[in-house]
Amino acid sequence: MDLTTLKKRYPMGLATTAMNLDDFKHLYQYKKNDIAILEATPIVTDNKSWQVGDYQSTQNFLALCRKHRVTPQSIHSFHMAEIGHDMTDADPEVRKKAIELNMEMFAAAHDIKANYMVVHLFNEKVKRTPGETLFYAKEALKRLLPEAEKTGVYIAVENLYYDWTITQINHLLDEMNHPLLGICLDVGHAALYSTAHEELALCGDRLLGFHIHDNCFKDDDHLIPFRGEIDWQAFCLALLKNGYQGPLMYESFAREENESVDEFIDACHASYLKLLQLLSAATS
Ligand SMILES: [Zn+2]
Questions:
Q1: Smaller CB count within 10 Å for the chain: N or C?
Q2: What distance in angstroms lies between residue 284's CA and the mean position of ligand 1's atoms?
Q3: What is the 211 CA–ligand 1 centroid distance (Å)?
């Protein structure tokens, strides 16, 4: 398959985490690299580039996207346990507040025309049996799903480390059996407990999108692909086998020493072209 066809089938996406934490002004570098799709990851509620839920701030963010010809295709829920955003926290009050905060994210996702919202439904620091883990994930989804239904925004459950794999997520989605539920495959996380290609093979048609980044199988480094040790050729073969067509969303954010944000975005794009070369070789 030639590169033009592959670019259409698998356009590049880049999560806002590639820029400085809450500073989205480097979107001009997206435009320079022809990166037309982003995942909005606000991380903190007082994000200075986009205050989720604030009308004027949303308009400003959308105007910035238009200026740089970038479309937000997905949104990442608030998830940092350290700041009370864990929807499965051990403390019921924290859990309740985190779920309520993320319920409001659906309207925000709808406002920016995002197709889906990525959610974390597991915290490896809370000791639970697999049954309990599943229970709390289901409780969170039961609260979130009515908002998904109101807005038409899908929920993409992300795999996180050893005890929250695609197999577990498949159990969860089997039990919930809801058309607005799917999977966000985090390729870097998969490589820490299995392999990216084996986990991709388990996603089937539930795959809504990706978080693509690299590591050396020890830490969740969020490197640019080919800077770590993931077998990207095997990943590409699994991707072709899956039949998914849609953005290859990068969630790399770890810059090398002295690497600027702009250089980092350029390097992300160069790595995407390398992935396309692998895909092209695999299809010819
Ligand atoms: Zn991720």
A1: C
A2: 31
A3: 5
